[in-house]
Amino acid sequence: MSQRPPAPPSLQELRKEIDAIDEGMHRLLMQRGDIIDRLIQVKQTQEVGSAFRPAREADMMRHLVQRHRGILPLDTVESIWRVIISTFTYVQAPFSVHADVSVSEPAMRDSARFHFGFTVPYVAHFSAQAAVEAVAKSKGDLALVSATSSRTPWWLTLEEAGAPKIIARLPFVERADHPAALPVFVVSRVADSAMVTEVETFSVRVSGWNAEIARALSPLAEIVAVPDTAFDGAALLISITAASSLDKIKAALIDAGASVRSTALVGSHATRYTVPPTGTKS
Ligand SMILES: C=C(O[C@@H]1C=C(C(=O)O)C=C[C@H]1O)C(=O)O
After folding, report:
1. Residue 281 near ligand 1, beta carbon < 6 Å
2. Domain span(s) for CATH 3.30.70 in the chain
3. Which pTM does this prediction carry?
4. How far is the CA of 85 from the centre of ligand 1 (A)?
5. Cα end-to-end span (Å), the chain
6. Which of 36, 89, 90, 92, when mutated, tests ligand 1's pocket best, judged by the most ligand atoms within 8 Å of its CB?
7. Please, what CATH class does the domain formed by 201-267 belong to?
8. Whose CA is nearest to atom 11 of ligand 1?
9. What burial class does residue 126 get, using C-beta atoms within 10 Å of its C-beta: 0-12 exposed, 13-18 middle, 19+ buried?
10. pLDDT at position 195
11. Ligand 1 binding pocket includes 81 (Cβ within 6 Å)
12. Residue 117 — left, alpha, or beta (φ > 0 → left; ψ -120 to 50 → alpha)?
């Protein structure tokens, strides 16, 4: 005779298991916090601008996505870890997030809260310039500005040595229906060794800029352009991947009929990492 299947666990037993897991997770988080004092000393957090380490964070977010499985939505896992990482960065060296809300206040606020949580102070500004200026005056604050459009060439102030730079592009993990999908550049001062240089961002001033030239350049690089009425040109913010180079972009600009007046590196960030809807990574 076959044995009777074991009785399913009671609700009480399952809740006990959940309580044990919650306690374990809480204890692990507290243990994670215990490392911070030692980390501050080793990293010399207080000596550079921000404790934010864009290369390390982009890497951690990619590993999280690659490891993830099961019924908990990726959006949830990503947002939990963003809050954990940002809050631990904050407790190493407090900072504020200065967001340019001129693009879309709700979308910008969602991005700030999703990526930096609620413990890190959020300060709204009505222009990218104002957000970047607030960061320039601070030691380690962060600015969030649109990565795809602008009314002003806010990146010109990043050209100076010692000025803050573009250090990341959010979201770290792109996908259709991302809950905080707004493409955003993070601007801050961080240690040179913490920068990730897969995509370099250049401030390029050109004369002779027009829609045709913009079209000719668009397959080669991502460009934010602001017309510069002073000399019939434009201030460009150009993101260049390893597949291309500033020389190639300059040659293409000249071929298309523009002349390049100046170029300056204004930051860099990790390669855009996309998770297609099927769940396979690219
Ligand atoms: C802990 C560090 O500092 C920050 C916080 C991190 C975290 O909590 O995991 C990761 C990267 C940094 O932005 C670190 O540099 O490793």
Report:
1. no
2. 201-267
3. 0.92
4. 6
5. 53
6. 89
7. alpha beta
8. 53
9. exposed
10. 84
11. no
12. left
